[in-house]
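S.,

As promised, the biotin run. Input:
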Amino acid sequence: MYKTVEDTLFIGKNLVFVPECPSTNDLAISLLRSPTSTEGTVVITNRQTSGRGQRGNQWLTEPGQNLTFSVLLKPHWLPVKNQFFLTTVVSLALHDLLRDFGVNEARVKWPNDLVVGEKKIGGILIENQVQGDAVTTSVVGIGFNVNQLQFAVSTATSLSLTTGMSHSLEGVLQSLLGKIEARYLQLRNGKHAALLDDYLAVMHRYQQVARYLADGAIFEGTIIGVDEWGKLKVQTSGSTRLFGLKEIQYV
Ligand code: BTN
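Predicted complex:
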């Protein structure tokens, strides 16, 4: 159903489409050892039967309405301690895409949810393979809600609900893959500071006082950044606290 991408150097040049699969991340991981799995290989499906999300959650989406795909990257030049930059790359690419569609209120909710207002429009599941000090391969799974109009939860939205029109999945994919490549090349060229600046500039609740839940207690704090490992830095009345993925919830 999907065509290989023309306007990129390597992302989407090898495109594997399957009408249905349990999870494109699982399929991409199983393809890792194949010699045809070159960097930039995209695995895409119309229907995932066991789509996986962050924190062990499921990723449920209406078949044929949205984008569910994985990109295989080989960032062997990326030190393990900098692996959070892959998150900044993909989050920013999705944000760049939404801005092109005129969705100026889109934000990146740390670490890698794309939200419009308080509603989630896309999520990212990055699974890295590490050897020694470097990330050898990275499977970047993206779920992006494009044309779905109804959701089981009130906290989800789609591009179509946001823009008031339906969109070609093929067109959105082509554009998104181009943006992922551009941001990835920025990382490969060592532009860490620029990526971090851009990430903070579009971060949900950045420098705003808000409520969070951690260690069983609700507290007020202000997100003031992320550290080099990607931990969230929150300023509270008494101190600056650092949180990993499962250690804090937005209230
Ligand atoms: C999240 O926000 O929890 C991350 C969602 C990631 C979903 C995508 S859909 C394509 C790829 N395959 C999966 O099983 N998960 C990711």
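Residues 23-25, 48, 51-54, 57, 59, 68-70, 113, 123-125, 141-143 surround biotin (CB under 6 Å). The mean pLDDT is 96.

- D.
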